[in-house]
Each structure stands twice: as C-alpha cells, then as structure tokens.
Amino acid sequence: MFFDLDHTLWDFEKNSKICIRQIYEQHKSIFPAEIGFEAFFQKFSTINSAMWNQLDLSLITHEYLRIFRFQKVLQALDIEIDEQFSLELNQMLLDILPYQQHLMDDAFDTLEVLASRDYKMHIISNGYQDIQIKKMKSGGIYHFFNQIITNDIAGARKPEKAIFDFALYKADADIGNSLMIGDNLIADIEGAKNAGLRTIYFNPEIEENNSENISELKYLLEIL
Questions:
Q1: What is the end-to-end Cα distance of the chain in Å, rounded?
Q2: Considering the chain, what is the average pLDDT of its residues?
Q3: Secondary structure of the chain in the HEC alphabet?
Q4: What CATH number belongs to 12-99?
Q5: Beta carbons of 16 and 44 less than 8 angstroms apart
Q6: What is the pLDDT of residues 69-99, one digit of tens each?
Q7: Taking residues 156-165, what's their average pLDDT?
Q8: Which CATH class is domain 2-10+102-223?
C-alpha cells in the first residue's frame, strides 16, 4: 500500500494554520489593521494550493514556489515585500511546520489496523525526504512505513510515472497487488493509474470523479 502524506494522513491545513499564525504574530507590523490573521491564512491556503497544482503540472519549479510563495500571498493582500523577505518567511514556515502533530481524522487508527493485518505500507510524496520524515515522526506514524519515497530521492515527482516505478522497485512490490491512496486527483490518482496501480481517491469533500473513492480513511478497512 502506497500513501500520499500531506492532506491524506498528515493534516496540512490544521498544521499550517498553527505555523501561519506564528508568522503573522511575529511580523504583525507589516499588516494593515484591517487585515487579520484569518484573511492572511485564507489567502495563504488558496495561493499555496494553486501553486502546488502548478507544480504538479510542471508549470513552475519547487524553487520558484519557495521563493515567491509568500510574496504572492502578501501581494494579494496589497502588501509588497521583496524576494529575500519572501524567502525568509518561507524558511520560517519550513523550520516549524514539520514539528506539528495533527493527523487527518482516523489516520492513526486506520494505519494501526492495516499494520495488524500485515499490509506493507509506504509513502510516495512530492515533499523532501528530511521534512516528510520529521512530519511523520511528529505525527507518530513513522513506524508504520517501510519505504518513504520523495521527489528528491526518486528524481521524479508525482504524477510522473518514474516516481511510481521507483517506489515499486524500492518496495519490491508486485504491481498487481499494489494500491495508491491519496487526495490529489492529478498527482496521486492519475499518476498512479498511468503507472498501472489500483487507486483509491481520498475525497473528504465528495467531489464528483471517475475514481474509487473514500470520504473517510476508516472506510479503507471495509474495502481491503
């Protein structure tokens, strides 16, 4: 079983909100009085999600995201900052984000049951190895997984077929008995399907699509 990490097992929204609040409080002087934390966080969530989608489609690079993410968020709030300060804010986020502990609902209990059933579980993530391992350890789920395949280790990103091929090789997995679970239709689901894997789309918002879906992680236990 191959899992995505962010938004599938590790609650990126909840954990990032904690970190964005710290950034807001530490740099409150740059925000006009009418722009509160919630406005800042909502703008961050929207633009960050859009930039990751662009990254999945190879429209931007990861380095571009790291440099310009906060500049674009603040520009959308009519606050101008230079690239260096944008990079500093991004680094602050990366320094504190991996140590947050919130998981998606039922994630730990579901993994515990799957482990008791002797499923071999692995991660395929577009994040960086060191950061993703820190997140998994902070969330208390690192011990459930054998291989942690990230874009820097594989030399490829989801939805590229190469990262799934690499993951299958590293896990010594039979593609016919392998399954990918993730929250992103492009990166996780389409990518894995193109590599020949069965997929289950983690779809809490119950968006209409043509894939096998679950709205809660615990429903995996009824399917498998």
A1: 10
A2: 95
A3: CEECCECCCECHHHHHHHHHHHHHHHCHHHCCCCCCHHHHHHHHHHHHHHHHHHHHCCCCCHHHHHHHHHHHHHHCCCCCCCHHHHHHHHHHHHHHHHHCCCECCCHHHHHHHHHHCCCCCEEEECCCHHHHHHHHHHCCCHHHCCCEEEHHHHCCCCCCHHHHHHHHHHHCCCHHHCEEEECCHHHHHHHHHHCCCEEEEECCCCCCCCCCEECCHHHHHHHC
A4: 1.10.150.240
A5: yes
A6: 999 999 999 999 999 999 999 999 999 999 9
A7: 96
A8: alpha beta
- Per-residue pLDDT at 208: 81
> pTM for the complete prediction?
0.92
Dihedral sign, Cα of residue 173, residue 179, residue 183, residue 186: positive
Domain ranges of the chain: 2-10+102-223, 12-99
Q: Do domains 2-10+102-223 and 12-99 have the same CATH topology?
A: no
How does pLDDT run across 129-160, given as a tens digit for each residue?
Answer: 999 999 999 999 999 999 999 999 999 999 99
